[in-house]
Amino acid sequence: MQVAEIVSWLGRTSFFNGLEKDDITRLAQIARVSTVPADTLLFSQGDESDGLYSVVEGIVRIFLTADDSRELTIQLFEEGEVIGEISLIDGLPRSAGAATLTEARLIFLPRQPFLNLLDSSSQLQRQIILSLCERLRHTNEQVNRAVFSDLRHRLLVLLRQLALIHGRIERDIAVVELDMTQGTLAQMLGASREAVNKQIRALIKEGRLSVEGHRIVVHRSAREA
Question: What pTM did the predictor assign?
Answer without folding.
Answer: 0.66
